[in-house]
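User: Design a sequence. Structure:
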């Protein structure tokens, strides 16, 4: 497994693989890999070669967000990727991705202004720009994204469709800890008391899923129950908890189409997200 920092070197390696008839699976990440990322890599093994990018993208962090603090451990990540059978890690420096004079961005309206976009106004512009650039560099057949970042996944699918990009986007299920907490690199910020309190998110998700499975279609009733569960936890503060159309991210009152029920909740200072989707039969 090679670790490459340079864009032209990645392009050369991938071109060579393509000439040999290989298919390329790509898993973009910001590193500090966990089993959630691992599940994307395992799925990407359906291709002949797997590329993982590890890049903490400054463009997707707001000025008061955790860019500097974001956990990084390239050595551990490389070991994990090697064990999983990854062929290439692309680990550029910010100056390689955004050299002096860089001034292009990819923005997507509407979809990016709801949910996480309301409290993170620059986030999805940064995500779309870097994902676009990474896809141009790696030129994969398929790229793999976690459903935990459901809004990100919907936005990337939209961007790929709107810009007629030549890649298949594959969504992969949320991976949870044994006690239900959705795996996230940001879980490492939690103190032990906050780690316990963070279970309010998954408890609320599981209760919501059960209600919908049992036939609840009224969003007001569903969200009230889900919010009550989170509000019982003194360390938790809801940023948002909403039911939206899974394609447009616009709020719905009734579950009468594919719907995403998504939340962002502060546990102390740590902002965590979780969600579930439902497609009425
Ligand atoms: O989901 C992430 O880790 C990031 O948003 C991504 C897609 C790697 C872009 O930086």
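Assistant: Done.
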């Amino acid at each position: 497994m090679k670790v490459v920092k340079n864009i032209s070197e990645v392009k050369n390696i991938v071109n060579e693989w393509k000439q040999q008839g290989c298919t390329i699976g790509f898993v973009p990440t910001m590193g500090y890999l966990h089993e959630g990322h691992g599940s994307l890599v395992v799925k990407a093994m359906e291709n002949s070669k797997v590329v993982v990018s590890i890049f903490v993208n400054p463009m997707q962090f707001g000025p008061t967000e955790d860019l500097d603090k974001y956990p990084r451990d390239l050595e551990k990540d490389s070991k994990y990727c090697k064990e999983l059978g990854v062929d290439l890690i692309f680990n550029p420096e910010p100056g390689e991705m955004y050299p002096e004079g860089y001034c292009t961005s990819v923005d997507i309206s509407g979809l990016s202004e709801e949910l996480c976009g309301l409290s993170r106004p620059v986030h999805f512009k940064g995500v779309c720009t870097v994902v676009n650039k990474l896809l141009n560099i790696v030129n994969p057949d398929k790229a793999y994204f976690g459903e935990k970042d459901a809004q990100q996944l919907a936005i990337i699918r939209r961007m790929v469709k709107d810009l007629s990009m030549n890649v298949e986007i594959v969504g992969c299920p949320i991976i949870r800890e044994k006690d239900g907490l959705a795996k996230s690199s940001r879980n490492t910020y939690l103190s032990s008391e906050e780690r316990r309190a963070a279970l309010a998110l998954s408890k609320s998700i599981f209760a919501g899923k059960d209600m919908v499975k049992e036939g609840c279609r009224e969003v007001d009733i569903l969200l009230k129950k889900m919010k009550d569960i989170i509000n019982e936890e003194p360390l938790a503060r809801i940023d948002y908890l909403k039911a939206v159309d899974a394609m447009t991210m616009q709020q719905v009152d009734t579950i009468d189409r594919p719907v995403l029920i998504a939340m962002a909740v502060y546990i102390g200072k740590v902002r965590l997200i979780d969600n579930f989707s439902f497609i009425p039969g």
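The pocket of pantoate is lined by residues 28-30, 57, 60, 127, 130-131, 149, 152 (CB under 6 Å). The two ends are 45 Å apart (CA to CA).
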